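ligand=zinc ion
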Amino acid sequence: MPPAVKKTSVSEDPQVYENLHVHEVYEKIAVHFSATRYKPWPIIAQFLSGLPEGWIGLDSGTGNGKYLPLPENNSVLVGLDRSFNLLKIARHAGSNNAVREVVRGDVLDSPWRPGIFDYAISIATIHHLATTQRRKLAVQRLLQAVSDSHGRILIYVWAIEQDELSKREIPVEDSTVSEKTTMGQDVFVPWNLNRQSTRSDNETQIFNRYYHMFAKGELIALVVEAARELGLHIGPRGRDQEIKQGVDIVQDGWERSNYYIELRRWKA
Amino acid sequence: MVRLITHNLLACHAKGCTSNNFPLAFSNVQIEIREAEFNPEFLKNFIPKVEWNALVDTARQLGDTSLPLEQPEMLDEEFLKSLHHVLLEIHVEEGVMTCPNCKHEYPISNGIPNMLLAEHEIG
Ligand SMILES: [Zn+2]
């Protein structure tokens, strides 16, 4: 039975808050965390296997790099993460002999030539950012990292609406999960780390990781606002000659306790 | 791993550094050569994205002079093999990458380049 999720609220500087409740936690639990993360979700696997040969992708918030081996035969996926300990694992994701491309950096930065990637994925990452402003900036970084003429993007975030199989108890009132709301819920998800102590008994250390659980409709609203601020038209390329560039929402939905959205950039 | 395929994508992102911020120059490097599977189709598709001068200069910094200064029009097997080696088989394990414009230094350790900036360096 997974430990219960508790409500929280972000009261400090968001960068300081994320350092304490996201980055430091992953640095400490990296090895243990990685051992539990190996199954790719179907929609992500499908997205990665359908890419043209020679494409270069960015996995923004790669964690232990579990997606890095997937497009092996047809494209290269570069993993970006803040956690050095997770990146050391990600380097060899899939096999100890394998070498993966990984870069240490922040998902809110842009240490790349603009628009150089053909595609980008952001899986279970944006929900660790502590304000709407920062989550929107992370989406804008993805939009800027990919080609303005053909760049494809896939984003996954944790949903308030949980899978029955996950058995997690989510402390939200019924009113907050109504269709109308687009406000998510800030929570702590505990991670129990068993470590061999110097004495004979085991000690369990509990690390609380911060998550913003997304409400229904919140991800798509975030993406639309992020794209509009960059001057991008939302929707497929139409006949209107005035509209020079845009982003099409290819699909969006819910899969296994997560909301996802797939995007494609275009230029007239 | 920093291979030149990844290095060719990186640019300095320190505060105010927006032009001439690429390619980052290697120094004090430790290199390992690891064989990779030759995939000419992948290379042909990747070529349009390569910043050619940056790639050639960087390969020369690392002691590899197999690439021509001008990107050839004919993609013969010999050329593709050289390109394959430069992009995918040279691994920089340790070292420093320096921005040609603002001279900001990005260290590489355990094959992982660190592009994080301190709070006051973020643009
Ligand atoms: Zn610079």
